[in-house]
Amino acid sequence: MSPEERKELISEIICAIGLVNPPLLSEDETRWVKMAIQREAQSIELRKAIIEKTITGLIWAAIVGCGYILLDFLKSHGFNV
After folding, report:
1. Phi/psi of residue 38, each to 5°?
2. Structure pTM?
3. How far apart, in whole angstroms, are the C-alpha atoms of residue 31 and residue 22?
4. Over the stretch 29-60, which tens digit does the pLDDT of each residue have?
5. E strand or H helix that includes residue 49
6. What angle do CA 26, 11, 21 make, to 5 degrees?
């Protein structure tokens, strides 16, 4: 089988499969599914952003808290800060 015959056979098979199996969803249903997938992806991104910002805030709060404790320790031990 030559490469040209092979390509022709593959294209005929693809056409035959496409004709036998029509799309299962209408255009409206396909559009709705795509929008649902997009909405879910946006929801996941929102959750990631919320988690990232919460962790960043907690880290900053811990740094500020440690600084306050250190400042209080230094003041209670006679250092003028």
Report:
1. -65, -45
2. 0.57
3. 17
4. 989 999 999 999 999 999 999 999 999 999 99
5. helix 27-76
6. 30
What tokens appear for 51 in the block? 């988690």
In which element (H, E) is residue 6 found? helix 3-20
Say how far apart CA 55 and CA 63 lie, in whole Å: 12
Fill in the amino acid letter for 3: P
In percent, the amount of the chain with pLDDT more than 70 equals 91
For the record, the structure tokens of 73 come out as 């320790």
Which of 65, 50, 63, 14 lies closest to 73 in space, CA to CA?
65
Distance CA 81, CA 4 (A): 85
Helix (H, G, I), strand (E, B) or coil at 18: helix
* Longest pairwise C-alpha distance within the chain: 94
